[in-house]
Design brief:
mainly alpha, 71% helix
Length: 130
């Protein structure tokens, strides 16, 4: 999270809303990790017994998936990050403590690993038919 804050603060485009953008960056990529964990549990451990968590609000299943991710993962992670890190300027003590790790590389690696996990999982589930 500290690397995300540093990245958002030093981004010229979004430097005025850095609290929201750093929180959203971190919540988005953390949601990919949670989604990966959910997919492993639901498809391999509990054999689709966790399907009751999926919301069916709209007719389009892809929109329902996005709404489910937003309600169950992204918003709670953003609220938790706000109360643990951003509220009362707790991030300042973290920035001082982890000054050496405040760079874009660490957050970039965290971001890339999240995308690669989901990509490889989806690629492994695709059946190639001739």
């Amino acid at each position: 999270m500290v690397s995300s804050i540093y990245t958002a603060q030093n981004n010229g485009f979004m430097s005025d809303i850095w609290k929201f953008s750093s929180n959203f960056y971190f919540a988005f990529i953390t949601s990919l990790y949670i989604l990966f964990f959910y997919l492993i549990l639901n498809n391999h451990v509990f054999q689709h017994q966790l399907d009751f968590l999926q919301l069916n609000i709209l007719e389009n299943r892809s929109y329902n998936f996005l709404i489910t991710i937003l309600i169950y993962i992204i918003i709670p992670v953003m609220i938790l990050n706000y109360y643990l890190i951003l509220k009362d300027d707790n991030y300042k003590s973290l920035m001082k403590k982890f000054k050496s790790s405040c760079n874009k590389k660490i957050f970039g690696i965290y971001f890339a690993i999240g995308f690669l996990l989901i990509f490889f999982y989806v690629a492994s589930r695709i059946e190639f038919r001739r």
